[in-house]
Design goal:
This protein is of the alpha/beta class. The protein has a single domain, classed as Rossmann fold (3-Layer(aba) Sandwich), CATH 3.40.50.
């Protein structure tokens, strides 16, 4: 499944790409701003978008609203990554985010959040907040569980 990572900080993009690889995702594209993300999304069908909240010039909030307002994109699971700010989490929920992840996080957390994003997408609208179904756990090519490897570093910067 193709995944699009949107973040203006190269270090964060590389960390998220590495975590996704640990989880078995191999088709991962990245872009550093929201406007270009929309262009990429029109050229390729993505199964998941992971975006930073603090983008410029188009913010993560604006990108999310554009995605949710487009009939072709609105069902794509959209995960926002950002700092622990209740204002940002509330704004992201209002804009239609599937899941909000607080930095820093590890592969196990990312895996759980991806599963929750897909469960939310599949649930009937009234039950989205209570969705409990999960998708199958991705396996690495050697057959091991991808969550056994953890990212021990911390995210830096304000992305």
């Amino acid at each position: 499944m193709p995944v699009l990572v949107v973040d203006s900080h190269d270090a964060t993009v590389q960390i998220v790409r590495a975590l996704l690889r640990q989880l078995g995702f191999v088709d991962v594209d990245d872009i550093n701003n929201g406007a270009e993300a929309l262009i990429k999304m029109r050229l390729k069908r993505y199964g998941l978008v992971i975006s930073d909240w603090h983008l410029e010039p188009m913010t993560g909030d604006e990108l999310l609203r554009e995605v949710r307002g487009d009939a072709g994109f609105k069902r794509i699971p959209f995960i926002v990554i950002g700092e622990s700010s209740s204002e940002n989490v509330i704004a992201a929920k209002k804009a239609g985010v599937s899941i909000y992840i607080v930095k820093p996080f590890d592969a196990q957390t990312l895996k759980a959040k991806i599963e929750a994003a897909f469960a939310t997408r599949r649930a009937p609208l009234p039950e989205r907040q209570l969705a409990l179904t999960t998708i199958a756990s991705p396996q690495l090519s050697d057959g091991s569980d991808a969550t056994s490897t953890r990212f021990s570093g911390r995210f830096t910067g304000s992305s």
